[in-house]
Amino acid sequence: MINKSIYLSVIIPAYNEERRMKDTLLKINDYLSSQEFSSEVVIVNDGRADNTLKVTKETLKQILLTSHILSRERNRGKGYSVKEGVLQAQGRFILFSDADLSTPFEELEKLISWIDKDYDIVIGSRGLKDSDIQIHQSWLNEISRKIYNVLVQCYLIRGIKDTQCGFKLFKRAVAIDVFKRQRIEGFSFDVEILFIAKRLGYKIKEVPIVWRDSRPSKVRMPIVPFKMLGELIKIRMRSKDKEKY
């Protein structure tokens, strides 16, 4: 049964986030507890390589967030975790946010203002003219991201400047429709869900956000970029067969 009283569901994928999770949940709690709308937070613990689960449980006991924890023993990937959280969410709108809060949580207001204008998906972006990058990624990560985006633009999705920002808001029905078709379990899932959404005809709005890089990055160089390239190839191959999406 869907709880129709919940306005917003927040999905937080977490892997080896024991150092960040307490601060992240406290910041989200401070914001959401000051809002008039009802909300829930779904934390997806993607494997048990550290004490993320323990820290999460201890922090949630101290605050007022309506929350749910999904946890597994084996690491499956960010895409798998976000999908699992989305499909469990109850809210009218569903946001997924990176656990490091590189996009400050209050930037949600920018996304909500556009989804209220009848967009189906609103995504935060570091690639627009008005994006406010206050702390940059390492030069190697920035170059890799820009090259990756060129490949995305050429082979899959034109017109979106930043597919990888971990701050995206969906209407619930749209999120369910898109994520149930998602197959990529790694970092390129963002591209896949946006590709699927465009193919299904959903309206996507990209908005500039504040960004403060939070290190260390979970993107291991050069292993992850090569994996992401392989995932792009898989999406491209599946795109030729409409029945697979």
Query: Hey, roughly how much beta strand do the residues contain?
Result: 15-25%
Largest sheet: 7 strands, mixed
Rg over CA atoms, rounded to whole Å, is: 17 Å
Give the name of the CATH superfamily. Spore Coat Polysaccharide Biosynthesis Protein SpsA, Chain A
CATH-level-2 architecture: Alpha-Beta Complex
Tally of discrete structural domains: 1
Low-confidence stretches: none
Helix content: 25-40%
How would you sum up the global shape?
globular
What is the SS-derived class? alpha/beta
Q: Main sheet: which strands, in order across?
A: 3-2-1-4-7-5-8
Output mean pLDDT: 92
Q: Summarize the helix and strand pattern as letters.
A: EHEHEHEHEEHEHHEEH
Polypeptide structure, described:
By secondary structure, the chain is an alpha/beta fold. It has a single domain, classed as Alpha-Beta Complex (Spore Coat Polysaccharide Biosynthesis Protein SpsA, Chain A). 38% of the residues lie in helices and 20% in strands. The chain has eight helices and nine strands. A seven-stranded mixed sheet has the order 3-2-1-4-7-5-8, with helices on both faces. Strands 6-9 form a two-stranded parallel ribbon. Helix 1 links the parallel strand 1 and strand 2. It is globular and about 50 Å long. The model has no long low-confidence stretch (mean pLDDT 92).
